[in-house]
Each structure stands twice: as structure tokens, then as C-alpha cells.
Amino acid sequence: MNKKRIVITGLGVVSPLGNSVAENWENLLAGVSGIGPVTRFDASTLNCQIAGEVKDFDITQYIPAKEARRMDVFIHYGIAAALQAIEDAGLDHIEGLDKTRVGVNIGAGIGGLPLIEDTGADVIAGGTRKINPFFIPGSLINLIAGHVTILKGYQGPSYGIVSACTTGAHCIGDAARMIAYGDADIMVAGGAEGAISTLGMGGFAAMKALSTRNDDPTKASRPWDKDRDGFVMGEGAGVMVLESYDSAVARGANIYAELVGFGMSSDAHHITAPTVDGPALAINRALKDAGLEPSDIDYVNAHGTSTPLGDANETNALKSAFGEHAYKMVVNSTKSMTGHLLGGAGGLEAVVTALVIKNQIAPPTINIDNQDIEAGCDLDYNKDGARKMEVRAAISNSFGFGGTNGTLVLKRVD
């Protein structure tokens, strides 16, 4: 197949580090942590009482308050990031834009859990008459895309992939293929999540998956550090606009990076315990799709969740896929600052990877005070601060429950 070249022309972000791309990028480069005590609910009975919450977010900057009350917060985040990306790409200013050829693919890993939780409490207190008629559409994952298409009049593909913490990467990779195969000219793609609630955090806490460093929240997410003790939940969204290289150049669009490869795989092993082979296979498939060699990659935005098993496993997967070149790359986890956005992580981290390529600078991985060399975590994790560097091409990794893996390959456009 003679694939179309796909480029990234718009970015949008809502995260614990800020409600715009510029604010997020500034805080990432400065090594700022967005982790703090939970304020959304009383978390005092949980062994984890910290999270990366979105702060000072106002959905009425994007949609009317009456409409906002009809949907869960994860949809709010997805809509906001999508509208930012659309504005950044200048889609509203394209004369004669064929909206039947513009699509949206924005997913979530969990979806409207807070709304489900609140509705359940209402039913227990007052019976089924308390169920809001907007409860179902307010909690469905595909309704991020649905609302964006309604707001903008886009009549192309409208859907949202659900694949746990790989969701955002899968949505972006699949959206690119929509363009490559001619099903759309432009796609708005990414992931969102807003599951910081009693059930959301309580569920992960029951699995012993979360950090319990409650007395020092900003130090809790510490990928590849010997004292890491679990991940920290985050929330928000990362969305990008994808279009063909030819159309972007023709209209003089700002191009952040080219999306040249996408690889997926399954561990086929366990619902939560990862394997080395699965992630390595996704990386190798993405490189093959990109037509690149391992030596072409300079930067890795790793899944890097700060779990004892996961961090060592990803490091071993990188060594398996890249061989000795693994030691020549910068491997970075922005989750050290944002926490883990679950279904929104792959979207946010793909946005960050595009910014790394555009600006030729890598953010730090904070909180590596005692690198876990004994566990084999011996790569260059950029622990000493933001680094100016040449980034010809980069990968962004995302792995999820069920053993689902996704890798995106982005390349500099000269």
C-alpha cells in the first residue's frame, strides 16, 4: 500500500499541570509535579490519598453550563482538549472545508465512573425516579467524539477506542490509518479520563497498585527509582489533529511532527502482569511500519508508571527491541509529573512527544533519587533536568490491562 504521509497540526491538553498546551509544556520542562492530596472526595479511608487532579478548569469556556451538567467530567476534558487542538490547527479557518471528511476518535479507559457512582447513590437514597434522563449519554465513552462532531458539524468517522491505558495511543494510531486508507482527510484523535472518585481510586487501591507516599505527594510518582511503590492516578486529556502532509503544506499549517509508525500487540499472558515480549513486539511493529531502524530513534516517551514490575519490564522490552542502542536514547516518563491519566495517558504523551520533536528538547523524569540499577533500570532516564538534544525520531509507548500494547513513532519534518 502506498500510504499517505500523516502529520500533526494541532494539539490540545488538559492535565494536572495545566489546562493548555503552553502551560503543560512549561511545567514539564521545569520539572513541576501536579500531584497533591485528593480534594474531590474524602479519601481518608484509602491507603492512597493522593492524585494528579486537574485544577482551575472551567468547562463553560468551551460549552454552556446547561450542556455541561448533562455529561461526566471525562467528556468535559475530552471536549476541551479537542477544541484546543482544532483551534491550534486552524480548522475553523479553512475555506471550503469538507466536513464530511473530518472525523473524531477520542476514547477513554474507564469512562463516566463518577457519574455512575453518583447516580447509584441517588438511586439508593431516592429510588429510580432520581435517575437523570441524561445519565446514559453522559457516561458513554464515545460521547466525547459525539459531542465534538455535533459542536463542529464533522460528519466523518466518529468513535472512541477503549483499551485501558493504551486507549489514547490506539485512538491516534487508528485515526492515522483512517486518513491513510482514504476514509477521512482530517482526524481529531486522543484520549481522556476523569476517574478520580471513591470507586476509581478505591478499586486501584484494593489492587495495591497505587503509591502510598501520602506524606510527600510530589515525590510519589518516581519511575525507575528504587523506592517506587506504585502509580499515582491522574486525570485530563490529550488530543491532536492529524491530516495528510500534502494538505497541511498546501494550506501553510504549522506541523509539529510526522506520525510515521503505529504498532500493536497483545501479551496473551495475564490481565495485569506484563511480559517483555508483548511491548517489544509492539515497538518492533511500529518501527517496521515507520520504515525506520532502531538506531533512528533518539527519544522514548515511556509508559513509565512508577510500579516496581512495570518499570523494569518496560526497560527490558526496550533493550529487547533496541539492543545496545537502548543505552543511546533518552527514555523519559512524564508520568513522574502528571501521574497516570489511564485512558488519557497515551493522548497526552503523544502530544508531549510531538512537542519534544518540534522543540528539540526532552523534559526530565523527576524523583529518580536512587536509580534502580539492581532491577536492570540502567538506561538514560533524563533525571537531571530538561535536555536540549537532537530528536530525529521518537516513540511513545502505552501498555494496558489485558496485555494490550501500543507504540507510536513520530518523526521530525525538515
Topology:
Elements: E1 6-14, H1 21-30, E2 36-37, E3 50-51, H2 65-68, H3 73-89, E4 102-107, H4 113-126, H5 135-139, H6 143-152, E5 158-159, H7 167-180, E6 186-193, H8 198-206, E7 236-244, H9 245-250, E8 257-266, H10 277-290, E9 299-301, H11 308-322, E10 330-332, H12 335-338, H13 345-359, E11 361-362, E12 387-388, E13 393-400, E14 404-411
Arrangement of strands in the largest sheet: 5-4-6-7-1-8-14-13-9-10
Number of strands: 14
Helix-strand string: EHEEHHEHHHEHEHEHEHEHEHHEEEE
Low-pLDDT runs of 5+ residues are none
Number of domains: 2
User: Shape from CA axes?
Assistant: globular
Instruction: Report the helical percentage.
Output: 25-40%
Rg over C-alpha atoms, rounded to the nearest angstrom: 20 Å
Question: What's the CATH class of the largest domain, please?
Answer: Alpha Beta
Largest sheet: 10 strands, mixed
* Name given to the CATH homologous superfamily of the largest domain: Thiolase/Chalcone synthase
Number of helices: 13
Question: Strand pairing plus helix content: what structural class?
Answer: alpha/beta
Provide the β-strand percentage band: 15-25%
Average of the residue pLDDT scores: 97
Terminal-residue CA separation: 24 Å
Q: What is the fold-level CATH name, i.e. the topology of the largest domain? A: Peroxisomal Thiolase, Chain A, domain 1
CATH architecture of the largest domain: 3-Layer(aba) Sandwich
Note the main attributes of this structure.
414 residues; alpha/beta; Peroxisomal Thiolase, Chain A, domain 1; 2 domains; ten-stranded mixed β-sheet; 13 helices; acyltransferase
